[in-house]
Design a protein that fits this description.
Blueprint: H1 9-15, E1 43-45, E2 74-77, H2 82-92, H3 96-99, H4 121-129, E3 147-148, E4 154-158, H5 163-168, H6 175-186, E5 195-199, H7 217-234, E6 238-242, H8 244-251, E7 266-269, E8 272-277, H9 280-285, H10 290-303
Parallel strand pairs: 1-2, 2-7, 4-5, 4-6, 6-8
Antiparallel strand pairs: 3-5, 7-8
Helix pairs in contact: 1-6, 2-7
């Protein structure tokens, strides 16, 4: 696994906006969390993983990123294959006449769903942009396919597009996108360089008032095969799940699982390490938790396979 020594910690913390918080003096740092076992425990399960809640982090305190990191706990999850997740989506779909715009051609059906797993980049993106598998297509301005290096080492997965993303067709624009860009720079992988950014769903989920909302289980099941195919083609060395929806959807867990139960350990998706952290939009609302997010990124660095 790659060590943290390869990175300039001071520059990284400045990119995340953490540095100035540690200029204050005479602030007692929180007690370190108990060390994890030296050897990672590999478990195969489909039920939610309940991890010990993280110790509270004082906003002005420095995270212990210089300390020697123990070997992370590795957790393997069962996830639905492409065909199975799509089949469930079709079973729960309403009748097409109830919600589908009639001027759009059909793109997928229950008969050709396995085709997704064989598509190239040039074939997959047009399919996503004209997809009608769920009702999110009704409010779609532009599908947000994803962006970045198609042979990236790092894959960052968010929940879904917001208002600006729906207009521009790009993931993570606006204030949350700027913070994510700083996170990427802190890892030495600026947007588009050894990194790829995608979402669990490709179209913006909104409520009756037109505000952003989390995607439903059916919407996730309809869209997840596209992300699975992207992962298969990118072959990333590490996946960082940004927020609860991204983490539990990738790992096949209950949608109500708190992200706090997923942090602090290395999960697995098809043999690829997965580290869960907070969504950048959450960090904008709770900047004190940037220290925890930085600890998650340090864990992801350690989980990288040795080159």
């Amino acid at each position: 696994m790659q060590t943290f020594d390869a990175y300039n910690r001071q520059r990284a913390l400045q990119e995340l906006g953490l540095g100035p918080l540690w200029l204050l003096r005479n602030i007692e740092s929180p007690a370190p969390e108990p060390a994890m076992e030296a050897e990672p425990e590999v478990r195969q399960h489909s039920a939610p993983v309940v991890a010990k809640a993280a110790e509270p982090v004082v906003a002005d305190a420095k995270p212990a990123v210089d300390a020697a990191w123990p070997e992370p706990e590795v957790v393997q999850h069962k996830h639905q294959p492409v065909a199975e997740s799509l089949a469930q989506a079709f079973e729960s779909m309403p009748e097409p006449d109830d919600w589908m715009p009639q001027d759009l051609p059909p793109v997928l059906s229950a008969d050709n769903e396995p085709v997704v797993a064989t598509l190239s980049w040039d074939e997959l993106q047009p399919m996503v942009e004209s997809c009608r598998l769920c009702g999110l297509c009704q409010g779609r301005k532009k599908a947000v396919f994803g962006t970045g290096d198609k042979q990236a080492k790092w894959l960052f997965v968010g929940e879904g597009p917001g208002y600006n993303e729906n207009l521009q067709g790009l993931p993570f624009v606006g204030a949350a996108g700027q913070l994510l860009d700083n996170m990427l720079k802190s890892l030495g992988v600026p947007r588009g360089e050894q990194s790829y950014i995608a979402n669990i769903v490709k179209c913006r989920p909104t409520d009756a008032q037109g505000k952003d909302r989390p995607p439903t289980a059916d919407e996730i099941a309809a869209c997840l095969p596209y992300l699975h195919r992207q992962i298969a083609m990118i072959k990333p060395q590490i996946i960082v799940a940004l927020g609860k929806t991204a983490a539990v959807s990738l790992l096949g867990m209950d949608l109500e699982t708190p992200v706090g139960q997923l942090r602090g350990k290395v999960h697995q998706f098809n043999g690829i390490p997965v580290v869960a952290t907070y969504h950048p939009a959450y960090l904008l609302r709770k900047p004190a938790d940037k220290a925890k997010a930085w600890a998650d990124l340090c864990l992801a660095i350690k989980a990288l396979p040795a080159n």
